[in-house]
Design goal:
The complex is a heterodimer of chains A (about 140) and B (about 110). Chain A has a five-stranded antiparallel sheet, with helices on one face. In chain A, a hairpin with a 3-residue loop joins strand 4 and strand 5. Chain A is α+β, with helices and mostly antiparallel strands. In chain A, about 35% of the residues lie in helices and about 30% in strands. Chain B is α/β, with parallel strands linked by helices and about 110 residues long. Chain B has one domain: Transcription Regulator spoIIAA (2-Layer Sandwich). In chain B, strands 1-2-3-4-5 form a five-stranded mixed sheet. In chain B, helix 1 packs parallel to helix 2. The longest helix of chain B has 17 residues. Chain B is globular and about 30 Å long. The chains are: A alpha+beta (about 140), B alpha/beta (about 110). Chains A and B meet through helix 1, helix 2 and helix 4 of A and helix 1, helix 2 and helix 3 of B.
Amino acid sequence: MQPINQMKLEFSSKSNNEGFARVVAAAFVSQIDPTVEEMADVKTAVSEAVTNAIIHGYENSNGLVRMKCILFSDAVEIFVEDDGEGISDVDLARQPMYTSKPEMERSGMGFTVMESFMDKVEVISEVGKGTKVFMYKKFNSLSKE
Amino acid sequence: MKVKISYKGSTLIAGIIGELDHHSAEYIRGKIDSELIKATTKNVILDFSKVSFMDSSGIGVIMGRYKNVSKLNGKLSVINVNDQMMRIFEMSGLLKVIPTYDNIDVAMNKM
């Protein structure tokens, strides 16, 4: 399957960019006309990934978050990357309800939400270097089989 | 993002308006908690009818308010939750401790 379009975005690790990033991703994906629900799934998953980069990757210090979207005729690949602290135990971080920040009232559901709203989620992280989250979603409403 | 505070009898109704994410969570938290401190009421209804977006940060906000209301021996419920948000509610286990209702009248009756 050949990509039909792609985009890259880089922005400061500020919490007001969470809304910016998810709206950009949704707008980019909207050109292939997925359903409203499918768009909401992408929006929510991007929001989780970008929030993780900002509060865990950079611990609210200044840094840059990168987002790349590759669009196919019936699917999207989304990469969210930071050069922050990294995750020492990715399997633990992906557990539902696990949070390293309970005092911030974080629910620990970020990765669980990404996993259930997208078809594939991969996390590559190195302590001290940063984290890359790869997500893939197939839009079933658009597949012609 | 706005929180519209109103009262029905002695029940505090917090209508959340806009997008509920990590960025807006702190504001919503502060707004509801400061109302809880001064209010004589114990019971709280969170109205989600005007929430246009919510991610898992919303779960943290609801659970946090639930803990605070419980400390005051009050009850908390959530009303007008759309399908997308309900999926996040379900996967988080929130529904095991916090009731959700279709509208304010049902929620008031169950308080």
